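User: Please predict structures.

Assistant: First:
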Amino acid sequence: MKNKEATFYARVSGESMKNAGLSDGDLIVIDRSLNPENNKIAVCFIDGDFTIKRIIKKEGELYLKPENKNYKEIKIEKEDTLMIWGLVTYVIKKIK
């Protein structure tokens, strides 16, 4: 843990990031001190809801990309309210 004051934990809910290794019920470690970067997995607050997605910047546009083909990527429009809350740095899984 590089920055204790900016480190948080959360449980994954859902399967939208399962192909990135984040499954329903996993515990994730979030670092709020890191700057958002292209292709990083982030906890995002968009239009009143939290979501975990991969940040994709392409051709001057911003997308939140799931890692499950059953979910659609989210194109961020100018009327959307988006806050990149923090970057996911680790995932803790329960051994079954």
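Second:
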Amino acid sequence: DVKEGKIKEFGPAKLERENDSPLFEGLSKEFAVWMNHGDEVKKAPAGFKVLGRTKTIKVAAIADEKRKIYALQFHPEVVHTQFGEKILENFHNYFPVLP
């Protein structure tokens, strides 16, 4: 359930982890992330669990671990996201793609 957000975010936020996941293995319970969005997920789809939230976004990271599907509201690929490289490394290590 995605809707236009009440708050458009462009800048830093603090992600609070809610559930364990291989995607966030080795990371702090809270860390800085970079947001750039106008929409937000109001409710995670069936089969997904919420991995993290921010002060303004209740669903900032979700996963369907069984099907190995992940979605992030923040940008792990930018230098402003603390542990961004580690998140991408975890994704690659746990869910390698074909060469």
